[in-house]
């Protein structure tokens, strides 16, 4: 197989940049270039002199960017990056379609297609094109057709599927020590040789037995299924949390007892206000759409329930807040702790906090939001409708963004924990001081199971925890 010396990655986002940075960091003899259509994003990657100035927050990311300028380069000159590379990762966004056929379910493959067309147009030498974005099963086939129909005569393209399994918040750790690297290729000599070339790059730091090869379709489908299975565990435990709240069982105890069974395992069994992030919902809906297109309505309905349960969990939690606060939020103030979809990231895509904030605003409640990493501008973007100016004005009537937890909770009737940031734990934050400045009775709703409720109750808080008995029931 061919030894790769130059790699390029299209898409400098949450996946493209950390992945390419780790590849460059671990492969000194490889030149890695990351290209993006957003010149603003690229210049932030180039010019950041510290962690805070990077376009995304990810622990450890700044350290692996040490190779910037040496064998890691960022550019907006996409054509040059394509032309020079032997191997091209396509790591562009694949959001859920908003309009047209499959709207609300199918993936919008417009960005993948335009990146693919660009490669076909520009390439004057053979390329290995690697599908890194999460795509529906058989997308590689479409990419191959586009490349073959539009490529220059004599230029050959090999296509691989290499889905990314990193999780935001632990991306660098996951990339440095992945559970597995999955490479899907065509089952012929050229395909296998291309897969071997890519495997050789990963083998710079990943043990060989963790680099697995399959056919292209298995590889594409595995990524959708992995996310569906992970999200399914969360929805399962969240469904159980509703039973716990109504009976007096404790969801943490149930999860612990069940997780000790080695066939089940302890991970991903934490009840919460619901999962978020750019991938889980999108990828399940993708799987649902795929199942429907394959005329498998029972399969589609089965996976759809995972998303439905997640929506239910968010509205159930909102209801509990309203009921506890004497059935009205009008004119009250809620401090929303956390806006990112999980801790250790600044990403808010599909964050449960967005739904909660919107629900509270609907109840004409003042909401003060504090998140240690999410940028203010992003919060306003998430709370308004794109293109509708009045929606931002409306949001600003009810929402304020606080500079710290104390400011958010001042004069509030309740605190709602939406993100499990370590900084919100009772071992980190001075809840006694917070309590003094709140309206009484002061409520705290732990939507992430991070607080010691007994300790907070002693301070005077009324504590309501997801998956644990409602205090109104415990009075009986
Ligand atoms: P993102 O939105 O952060 O980044 C995508 C980037 O691609 C953007 O900066 C955009 O400007 C750029 N782009 C779009 N079209 C382009 C083109 N033709 N040429 C060059 N650049 C172009 O998206 P993110 O989160 O990095 O996701 C990328 C893919 O990876 C998606 O398919 C996603 O499902 C998948 N994925 C995401 C994970 C995550 O944790 N965010 C984890 C695993 C997979």
Describe the structure.
- This protein has 476 residues and is of the alpha/beta class.
- The chain folds into 2 domains: 6-206, Rossmann fold, CATH 3.40.50.720; 236-474, 3-Layer(aba) Sandwich (Rossmann fold).
- The protein is 44% helix and 13% strand.
- The protein is built from 19 helices and 14 strands.
- It has helices at residues 16-26, 39-47, 61-64, 78-84, 110-122, 139-150, 171-176, 189-202, 216-247, 251-259, 280-293, 297-324, 352-362, 376-383, 389-398, 405-409, 431-436, 453-459, 471-474; strands at residues 6-10, 31-35, 72-75, 87-90, 127-131, 157-161, 181-185, 211-215, 333-337, 366-370, 399-401, 414-417, 443-446, 462-465.
- The strands form 3 sheets. Strands 3-2-1-4-5-6 form a 6-stranded parallel β-sheet, with helices on both faces.
- Strand 9 (333-337), helix 13 and strand 10 (366-370) form a beta-alpha-beta unit.
- Helix 9 crosses helix 11 (280-293).
- The longest helix has 32 residues, at 216-247.
- The chain starts with 5 loop residues before the first strand and ends with a helix.
- 1,4-dihydronicotinamide adenine dinucleotide binds next to helix 5.
- 1,4-dihydronicotinamide adenine dinucleotide is lined by residues 10-16, 35-38, 41, 78, 91-94, 111, 114-115, 118, 133-134, 164, 166, 168, 278-279.
- NAD(+) binds at residues 11-16, 36, 41, 92-96, 133-134, 168, 279-282, 349.
- Its EC number is 1.1.1.22.
- It comes from Yarrowia lipolytica (strain CLIB 122 / E 150) (Yeast).
- The active site is at 279 (nucleophile).
- Belongs to the UDP-glucose/GDP-mannose dehydrogenase family.
């Amino acid at each position: 197989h061919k030894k790769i010396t130059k790699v390029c990655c299209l898409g400098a986002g949450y996946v493209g940049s950390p992945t390419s940075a780790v590849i460059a960091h671990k492969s000194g003899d490889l030149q890695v270039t990351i290209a993006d259509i957003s010149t603003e994003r690229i210049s932030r990657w180039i010019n950041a002199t510290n962690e805070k100035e990077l376009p995304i927050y990810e622990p450890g990311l700044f350290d692996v960017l040490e190779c910037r300028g040496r064998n890691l380069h960022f550019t907006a000159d996409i054509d040059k990056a394509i032309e020079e590379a032997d191997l091209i990762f396509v790591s562009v966004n694949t959001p859920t379609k908003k309009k047209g056929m499959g709207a609300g379910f199918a993936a919008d493959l417009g960005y993948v297609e335009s990146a693919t067309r660009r490669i076909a147009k520009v390439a004057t030498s053979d390329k290995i094109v690697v599908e890194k974005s999460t795509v529906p099963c058989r997308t590689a086939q479409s990419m191959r057709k586009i490349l073959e129909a539009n490529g220059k005569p004599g230029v050959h393209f090999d296509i691989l599927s290499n889905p990314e399994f990193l999780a935001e918040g632990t991306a660098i750790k996951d990339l440095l020590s992945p559970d597995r690297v999955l490479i899907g290729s065509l089952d012929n000599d050229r395909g296998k040789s291309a897969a071997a070339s890519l495997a050789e790059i990963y083998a710079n730091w990943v043990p060989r037995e963790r680099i697995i090869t399959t056919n292209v379709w298995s590889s594409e489908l595995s990524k959708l299924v992995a996310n569906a299975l992970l999200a399914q565990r969360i929805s399962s435990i969240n469904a159980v949390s509703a039973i716990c709240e109504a009976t007096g069982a404790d969801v943490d105890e149930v999860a612990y007892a069940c997780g000790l069974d080695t066939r089940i395992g302890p991970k991903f069994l934490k009840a919460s206000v619901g999962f978020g992030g750019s991938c889980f919902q999108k990828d399940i809906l993708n799987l649902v759409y795929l199942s429907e297109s394959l005329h498998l309505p029972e399969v589609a309905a089965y996976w759809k329930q995972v998303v439905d349960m997640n929506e239910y969990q968010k509205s159930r939690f909102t209801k509990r807040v309203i009921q506890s606060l004497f059935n009205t939020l009008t004119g009250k103030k809620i401090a929303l702790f956390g806006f990112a979809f999980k801790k250790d990231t600044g990403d808010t895509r599909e964050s449960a906090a967005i739904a909660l904030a919107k629900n509270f605003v609907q109840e004409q409640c003042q909401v003060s939001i504090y998140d240690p990493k999410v940028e203010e501008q992003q919060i306003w973007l998430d709370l308004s409708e794109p293109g509708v100016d009045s929606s931002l004005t409306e949001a600003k009537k009810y929402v304020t963004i606080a500079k710290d937890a104390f400011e958010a909770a001042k004069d509030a009737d309740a605190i709602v924990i939406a993100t499990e940031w370590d900084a919100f734990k009772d071992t980190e934050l001075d809840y006694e001081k917070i309590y003094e400045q709140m309206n009484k009775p002061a409520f705290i709703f732990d939507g992430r199971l991070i607080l010691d409720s007994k300790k907070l109750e002693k301070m005077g808080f009324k504590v309501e925890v997801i998956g644990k008995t409602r205090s109104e029931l415990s009075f009986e």
